Amino acid sequence: MLAVRSLGIALLAAALRVSAGPLAKRAAAYYDPADDGGSMLTNAGDGYGEPLNVIISGLSSPDVLTYDGSINYARAIGFSTECLGIHIGAPQSANLGDGNGSVNQTIELREDYGSASVGTCLESAIGGNHFRIFVQNGTAADSGALFLAVSYEEDASDGHDIEPNGYDIGRDDLVSDALGTTSYGGVTYSTTAENITGLLSAGSAGINHDISIDGIVTLLTVTVQ
Prior knowledge:
Helices cover 22% and strands 24% of the residues.
């Protein structure tokens, strides 16, 4: 009898370990990348970077923090995958201070102008908002948070350069679209926001295209309803 009870306890412990896997809620909203040699700027080349100006909190509903879940959430707030699945230009990388070192972006998503299927083709032509996702999930700082490099870009005729003040504009537009209740694919989300200072420096030092930023990072906490 004792052996059977011990086996039951062992099986329960194993089940709990499984439930604490990738879909378990983490214990931190995010960790500051600078605490362990990382940066709140991506590597855009030539010593310049783009600000990671939005963070989706690691305390969000776990499904939001997965690859497929982040795409569905993006579609709920007006973004989608790139036109015809084609990406022009090299991916950027970032070091989030989580022990993974410098890692390429997970995905890039673009404003869809009301159509998740083909709207990003319009964004590719006329410009608009877009963002790159980087995941903080290394063993040194496993928050599970999604760090977003958001920016508003010009149209194709201007080479998709970032608009003047395009980093702050992109952040603010994304946050405005995300706040409150949104839904896509049968999933409903509730999003709250908090502005964080001290992670990024205001000004244009080290910023791609020499565009000045206000230094604010917006932390989004997303809950599946």
